[in-house]
Each structure stands twice: as structure tokens, then as C-alpha cells.
TrEMBL record:
PANTHER family linked: NAD-DEPENDENT ALCOHOL DEHYDROGENASE (PTHR43350), S-NITROSOMYCOTHIOL REDUCTASE MSCR (PTHR43350:SF21)
InterPro entries cross-referenced by the UniProt entry: ADH-like_C, ADH-like_N, ADH_Zn_CS, ER, GroES-like_sf, NAD(P)-bd_dom_sf
Similarity section: Belongs to the zinc-containing alcohol dehydrogenase family.
Cofactor: Zn(2+)
UniProtKB keywords: Metal-binding, Oxidoreductase, Zinc
Domain of life of the source: Bacteria
Residue ranges of domain Enoyl reductase (ER) in the record: 14-361
Protein name: Alcohol dehydrogenase
Length: 362
């Protein structure tokens, strides 16, 4: 039977989101119904509220989530009722060229940014669910390939973070930048994603992890995550970085904001031949200006890292094992535990650069 449940909905760009009563469809073959237990507030949600990322409305927000499987459709064998699971907002088809070539995070069936409809209704009309999930809600219906089981000992609030911020941050370091022992790394933007990058860079053996944010309040969080230096972002950033890197610039800069200004700052923070990794998801209208001569003569590499450039199905169980085994600490990423009605205030805190992750507990 379909049932009513609550979800956080934004009705148009710029409008304040609010809890609304939604109706969930009955599940079909290949689908899974998950009772959400925890969902992290990621900047991409805020970007869909303020219009930085263009999305269709009305839209149920939330995509960094974990919960318990409560119903499985026909042909579903990956998970069973009662399993604890993390949700994937970019489930790979396993059939397209990218999946067949070992890059499932670039799967051509996943749009990545746009929201999809999945039969959920609001006031009797279909409503969009962000990134195919809409996880600031009591329940979601998702395709089975978007659901991966994790050990029941893993707290839901930590499992949720694995599903976006932690996978994105650790994957950027391990899979895209491939930070090696002894290298120097500048991390720009210290939200849930950037702090995960800091911790992963340190774990990879980086000698210097220089954490950068506009908000001075991030210093303590950066140090707790393993940063060796903290610098408040300013126009003099590249000079500050050079002072700390023997005048050369860093081996790596990892951008976790999603703006042209910070991508340029990351570029300028690296040495000749250095690597710039863009993790932040910016706007289509925000152009990055780099000089053609600088691109040539600096010999830097500029790459993005989408969803940690990781295979979700193998990486999530590995990250869960790391957390349970004590080799990956993510508890410090959670600064606020909130309810569904508190999501708008979590966006306000995020806009002011306060705290690390707010996690909705259900
Ligand atoms: N220079 C340095 N830091 C900045 C700047 C700037 N110009 N502008 C913003 N910041 C900082 C904020 O103060 C904040 O600490 O960037 C951080 C961003 O953190 P969150 O808002 O918590 O964002 P997060 O969820 O970590 O996501 C970061 O990754 O997945 C993408 O869409 C997401 O683009 C976003 C990015
Ligand atoms: Zn996210």
C-alpha cells in the first residue's frame, strides 16, 4: 500500500524549504523502499535551493543518506528487508560504455545534477526528488542499484556521510589526485567534503595539509581533521601558500567550494607541474579564466573528481570497514544533529560557513 510520509520540499528557486506531506508509490520490480534513519545536509542541496544548480521544482531535497530496507520489489537480490543501507545518488547501469570501461561514476544513464521523478506525489501531483533520492524524508523508493548494504554496527549517522561527502572527499584524494606520501596538499573549502579531503590527505601520508577557508571558525575543525596549517582565504593566498612550500607552491590543491574564484586560487596555489583537483560543484554560468600562456608554461594538471571517482559498490563497504576498524574517523564531521523541520536553519548555518555537517536523524 502506498502511504503518506514527510519530506523537505523546496517549491521554487530561492524559496525557503519546508516539511510537506508526500505520498510514496507502491514499489515496482527492481525497486527498494528504504526507511531513512539519517541524512546529511550537503552543499549541493543548498545549491538546488538557491538556484546555483538548476533543478526542477517542486523538489524533495536530500541525497546523502542511510536507512533500513523495509520492502524489496521483484528480482531484487542485492539487499533484503532489515538490511542497513547507504544510498547512491548516481547508480551505475553497469552496461554503458563508461561502466564497461571501469568508470561507473561517469555512467551515461545518470544525469548527476538533474532531479528525477520516481512516482512520489505532493498534493496529488508528481514531485521531483533530488538526485533520484529525495532523502530528507521518512522513506524513499530507489532502484536496487542505488542501495548498498552496510554492517548493522555502523551508526546510521556515519553511514549517511559515507554516501556523499566522505566518499567524494576520500575518493578525490585517493583516486583522482592520488596524493602520495611526503606531498603537500592545499585544501580550499572546509565543509563536510573539504574536511574529508583533509583527513584522507593526512592518511595518505601528505607531509603538509594546508587547510583554507574564508571562515576563521573552521580552524579547529581543520586541525581536528589533521590539517598541519590553517590559512584564512584572501587575495594574498598564493603568496601565503608559497611561504609554506619553499617558495614553489603545493604539489596538490583540492578545491571543495565550487566557484571560479576558488578554482583559480587552487590553480595559483600549486607549483609548476602541480595537480589541481576540482571537487566543488559550481554553476554553469561561472567561467574560470586562466591565461593560455599560464596553462602552457605552468604545466599543471586540472581535473575534476566526480563522486570520488569511485565504484560505489566496492568503495562504500571498504569505507564502512575503515570506520568500524578505526582507521577512518568521521565522527568529528558531524557538528549538528537535527530533525526534518530544522533543515532550513542548517542551510543558514552552511551559508554563514558555520559548523561541519548537520545530519537529520529520523
Ligand atoms: N574561499 C575559501 N573557502 C570558502 C570560500 C572561498 N572563497 N567560499 C566558501 N568557502 C567555504 C565555506 O566557508 C565552507 O566552509 O567552503 C566551505 C564549503 O562547505 P559546505 O558549504 O559545508 O559545502 P560541502 O557540503 O562541503 O560541499 C562543498 O562540494 O559536493 C560539492 O556541491 C558541493 O560545491 C560543494 C562542495
Ligand atoms: Zn552531496
Amino acid at each position: 500500500m502506498s502511504a503518506y510520509f514527510n519530506g523537505v520540499v523546496v517549491r521554487s528557486a530561492g524559496e525557503r524549504p519546508a516539511v510537506a506531506e508526500l505520498r510514496l508509490p507502491e514499489i515496482g520490480p527492481g525497486q527498494v523502499r528504504v526507511r531513512i534513519k539519517a541524512a546529511g545536509v550537503c552543499h549541493s542541496d543548498l545549491s538546488m535551493v538557491n538556484g546555483t544548480i538548476r533543478a526542477p521544482y517542486p523538489l524533495v531535497l536530500g541525497h546523502e543518506a542511510a536507512g533500513e530496507v523495509v520492502e524489496v520489489g521483484e528480482h531484487v537480490t542485492r539487499v533484503a528487508v532489515g538490511d542497513h543501507a547507504v544510498l547512491n545518488w548516481q547508480p551505475p547501469c553497469r552496461e554503458c560504455w563508461f561502466c564497461a570501461h571501469g568508470e561507473p561514476w561517469l555512467c551515461s544513464t545518470s544525469s548527476g545534477v538533474a532531479a528525477l521523478e520516481n512516482g512520489v506525489t505532493l498534493d496529488g501531483a508528481p514531485v521531483h526528488v533530488s538526485l533520484g533520492l529525495g532523502a530528507f524524508a521518512d522513506e524513499v523508493v530507489a532502484p536496487a542499484n542505488a542501495v548498498i548494504g552496510v554492517p548493522a554496527e555502523l551508526p546510521f549517522e556515519q553511514a549517511a556521510l559515507l554516501g556523499c561527502g566522505v566518499l567524494t572527499g576520500t575518493g578525490a584524494v585517493r583516486n583522482t589526485a592520488r596524493v602520495a606520501a611526503g606531498e603537500s596538499v592545499v585544501v580550499i573549502g572546509l565543509g563536510g567534503v573539504g574536511l574529508s579531503v583533509v583527513a584522507a590527505a593526512r592518511a595518505a601520508g601528505a607531509s603538509d595539509v594546508i587547510a583554507v577557508d574564508v571562515s576563521e571558525a573552521k580552524k579547529g575543525l581543520a586541525e581536528a581533521a589533521g590539517a598541519t596549517d590553517f590559512v584564512v582565504s584572501s587575495d594574498a593566498l598564493s603568496k601565503e601558500i608559497r611561504v609554506r612550500t619553499a617558495g614553489r607552491g603545493a604539489d596538490h590543491a583540492i578545491e571543495c567550494v565550487g566557484r571560479s574564484a576558488t578554482i583559480r586560487a587552487a590553480w595559483r596555489a600549486t607549483r609548476r607541474g602541480g595537480k589541481v583537483t576540482v571537487v566543488g560543484m559550481g554553476s554553469n554560468d561561472d567561467l574560470v579564466q586562466l591565461s593560455a600562456l599560464d596553462i602552457f608554461s605552468s604545466s599543471r594538471t586540472l581535473r575534476s573528481s566526480v563522486y570520488g571517482a569511485a565504484d560505489f559498490d566496492t568503495e562504500i563497504p571498504r569505507l564502512a570497514a575503515d570506520v568500524l576498524g578505526g582507521t577512518l574517523a568521521i565522527d568529528h564531521l558531524i557538528s549538528d544533529r537535527i530533525g526534518l523541520p530544522d533543515v532550513p536553519e542548517a542551510f543558514d548555518r552552511m551559508s554563514r560557513g558555520e559548523g561541519a555537517r548537520s545530519v537529520v536523524l529520523l
